[in-house]
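Re: that chain you flagged

S.,

Sorry for the slow reply, it's been a week of failed gels. I finally had a moment to sit down with the sequence you sent. For the record, here it is as I used it:
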Amino acid sequence: MTVHLTRTDEFALMTLDRPEALNALSFATLRELEERLDEVTAGDARALLVTGAGDRAFCAGADIKELMGRPLAQGRRDMANGQRIISRFGQLPMPSIALINGYAFGGGLELALACNFRLAVKTARLDWPGTPTAVCRWTHRPP
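Prediction finished late last night. Pasting the structure tokens below so you have them in one place:
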């Protein structure tokens, strides 16, 4: 299992648990995310907290190894399915809060942005690969 759902008082905590892959979103992880979202929706939590296991990454985005060599049409279907699942975070019956504890790249940044609120550690790196640095990259810089 790569997505854990625990409960602390009134809060549901969803943890992406693939630290060896910087919590990248594999196809199996996306399926588990959807299953955990169904559980959260059916439950009585007052808020959902979302984070990544380990201290390096919230979520590094798509698992690139799984995308290699896939036909274009299949890739489009997979991308649409991933976006459908990620968009559910903003449609929950309770607020969702991304606890960004490291890298949030590509689909990982999309996941954070789909949540209603975001909190990031000072060392977090948020980036949309392939875009100009000034447009999408954010790194905390102390005054």
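What I noticed first: The two ends are 41 Å apart (CA to CA).

Talk soon,
D.
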